[in-house]
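Recap from last week: sequence in, structure out.
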Amino acid sequence: MYIIGITGGTGAGKTSVLKALQELGAHALDCDAVYHELLLSNADMKADIAAQFPDVFINGEISRKKLGEIVWSNPDSLQKLNDITHKFMDREIDNRIDSLKAQGADIIAIDAIALIESGQDKKCDFVVGIVAPQKKRLARIMHRDNITEEQALKRICAQQPESFYRENCEFIIENTYETEAEFIRKCTEFLRSILYG
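Predicted structure tokens:
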């Protein structure tokens, strides 16, 4: 059984790599999706966020927009949020890995921007870093999240540079393809060669 880590900055193409792995039979753990689930359901995490960021709550619920405005423009605030959420995420990812193992999963893929910083990479047999030109990343983020170029650039600048992934990942996939379908096809070929030789 393999546990594969997928990481890289926002807009680089991690979701496409996850799709390629799913085509190879992998069970995907999308940490962004898990985080959003916990924002809604985990009372302890919400309480810790409320203590640190009381202004992001509207009618008792976290406004992701308000929280994003704070953390994407302030590295200290982003680190404080990560310090809160990583401990809850770590526990939840462990539970989901155990559940998938019990179901007989052969390949589990963990997709996370902060995979290495959170220590999730220690669970993985190897880590694949996804990198892409900044211009392409900006276009993807603006289209995906319906935000301005300035807002998209703030998100990119708040995250690790490309060199971080090149230094800390066993494999690097460069996303310079014109279409997602072409990128997924190339990723599937590359990942198949790693997993099956």
